[in-house]
């Protein structure tokens, strides 16, 4: 990429941050921010997390929760991106079950408690190449992102974590920006599955993971998002 193009990316990148501050349940988004979604530290700046070894990798939260959404297993659940997912990269969804004796409003999801339940990753173009456009990244420039809650997830209270990895400045390790938010839900109508593999945040990602580094040239032909495989139930 030409130096002038890199400078342009740096200048525009700071103005194109976002956050996921509303949950979408049964196709209906929340009318106000920070209802089911825990308020995050970027509520004013919209800035992302850049240190994958930080505790901010859990929920990037400023405040714990206040309300919990009731969600039926197997249904489609989404997040509103304010104002859109304005950088290319993958979007992943994780869930963590709140212990029965814990208060969901204050529970801290430390340790190996997270399992991946959805992923919107890259797809190569007709020529087999992978660029940085909407053609290659289905979540890019979308205002809403969705996944299906696995039908076999057991009933109970969960944190649902949405994570958008922006790769536009990730030419070297540490350049990726992660936009993270967590919603509080109670799953009903679930099954008897055993979700896994379970991972921790921080811990699931390493600074030098291939999925956190992007090269514009030579043009790539494949990409794999960091983290474990999606649990299908």
Which features would summarize this protein structure in a list?
about 230 residues; mainly beta; Coagulation Factor XIII, Chain A, domain 1; 5-stranded mixed sheet; 4-stranded antiparallel sheet; 9 strands; about 5% helix; disordered N terminus; secreted
Topology:
Layout lengths: L2 H11 L5 E7 L2 E2 L26 H4 L9 E4 L3 E7 L8 E7 L16 E7 L23 E5 L7 E11 L10 E12 L45
Parallel strand pairs: 3-9
Antiparallel strand pairs: 1-2, 1-4, 4-7, 5-6, 5-8, 8-9
Tell me what you see in this structure.
- There is one protein chain.
- The termini are far apart.
- It is built from two helices and nine strands; from the N terminus they run αββαβββββββ.
- The strands form two sheets. The chain has a five-stranded mixed sheet with strand order 3-9-8-5-6. The protein has a four-stranded antiparallel sheet with strand order 2-1-4-7, with no helix packed on it.
- With 233 residues, the chain is mainly β.
- It has helices at 3-13, 56-59; strands at residues 19-25, 28-29, 69-72, 76-82, 91-97, 114-120, 144-148, 156-166, 177-188.
Output the radius of gyration: 17 Å
Shape: globular
Count of domains:
1
Largest sheet: 5 strands, mixed
- Architecture in CATH? Distorted Sandwich
Q: What is the CATH C level class, in words?
A: Mainly Beta
Task: Tell me the distance between the termini.
Answer: 42 Å
Uncertain runs with pLDDT below 50, 5 residues or more? 1-14
Main location: secreted
Cofactor: Cu(2+)
Keywords: Carbohydrate metabolism, Cellulose degradation, Copper, Disulfide bond, Metal-binding, Monooxygenase, Oxidoreductase, Polysaccharide degradation, Secreted, Signal
Subcellular location: Secreted
């Amino acid at each position: 990429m030409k130096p002038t193009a890199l400078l342009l990316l740096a200048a525009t990148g700071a103005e194109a941050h976002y956050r996921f501050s509303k949950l979408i349940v049964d196709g209906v988004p929340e009318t106000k921010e920070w209802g089911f979604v825990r308020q995050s530290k970027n509520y004013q700046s919209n800035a992302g997390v850049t240190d994958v070894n930080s505790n901010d990798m859990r929920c990037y939260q400023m405040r714990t929760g206040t309300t919990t959404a009731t969600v039926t297993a197997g249904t489609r659940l989404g997040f509103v991106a304010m104002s859109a997912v304005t950088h290319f990269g993958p979007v992943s969804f994780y869930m963590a079950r709140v212990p029965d004796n814990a208060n969901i409003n204050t529970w801290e999801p430390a340790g190996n408690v997270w399992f991946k339940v959805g992923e919107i990753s890259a797809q190569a173009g007709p020529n087999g190449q992978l660029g940085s456009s909407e053609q290659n990244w289905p979540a890019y420039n979308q205002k809403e992102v969705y996944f299906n809650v696995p039908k076999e997830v057991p009933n109970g209270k969960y944190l649902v974590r949405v994570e958008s990895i922006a790769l536009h400045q990730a030419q070297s390790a540490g350049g990726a920006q992660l936009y993270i938010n967590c919603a509080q839900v109670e799953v009903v109508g679930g099954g008897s599955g055993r979700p896994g593999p379970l991972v921790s945040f921080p811990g699931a990602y390493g600074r030098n993971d291939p999925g956190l580094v992007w090269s514009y040239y030579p043009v790539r032909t494949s990409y794999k998002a960091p983290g474990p495989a999606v649990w299908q139930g």
